[in-house]
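Bench notes, afternoon.
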Amino acid sequence: MSRAASQIAAASAAMVAAAAGCFTYGLLYLLGDKSKAINKALSFYTPSGALSGVFIVGTLVALVFWWVLAKRWSTRPSAAAGAVRIAIALLLMGLLFTFPPFVRFI
């Protein structure tokens, strides 16, 4: 694989991983808001409450996604357009999950 293709694959992996992290933040926020048990499970640090768990788990998901996707996509040509579509979809869902009218509706 050429250097340019390798760089595109790495950038695509980082973009999708960041969007997966945002999706995880939104999903965990929504789940923690709706379930006392999940809220309590996400409270890793008492003064900040469930936000500490949301941040830690979301960041770990993003890092794991980045590592896995970078390894998988480094050996084959990247479909950057598909990665952009996936990243936008994950990002929009993550934002929707933190939108107050949506949270109240669920």
